[in-house]
Amino acid sequence: MNTKKLGLGILDTIVKVVFIIIVAMLIIKYAKVAYNYGYHIFNQTAVSSGTGREVTVTISEGDSVGQIADKLAEVGLITDKFLFKLQEMFSEYHGMEQPGTYTLSTAMTPEEMLSIMSGGIKNGEESSDKDGALEEGAAEETEVTEETQETEEVGNSEESNGN
Description:
Layout: H1 2-42, E1 54-59, H2 65-74, H3 81-90, E2 100-105, H4 110-117, E3 121-122, E4 125-126, H5 129-162
Antiparallel strand pairs: 1-2, 3-4
Helix pairs in contact: 1-3, 2-3
């Protein structure tokens, strides 16, 4: 009887240890998966480097993010549909995808693709290259004006020192 209890006790201990090992292995495995997704949501990479391969994709009216992810995965623009959905959810272009036909490249990150598919709209405001060019031109004009004023001030102070 004592031997039977001892055998059952050892068997019970072995089962508990095996269970704990299996649980620990599952936790480690899924922690790695979670870390990988978390890392790639914010550190986006393109499918290929260099110039990549250009692909035309058509987004229809009412396409969900899942359907867009399916289309992008079919043509090789993304490698993980679920990751793309998460990246879209956490991007500034969430829910702003517009229907249309787009030429995208495998060298683009998901954020760049979303920017194009949203029509360049950021947080409800339209951004365009013209606005950026005007801002740059205005900044250059300000710098030239400041340089001209400094030159005039130096010239005026030299004239007053010479008199």
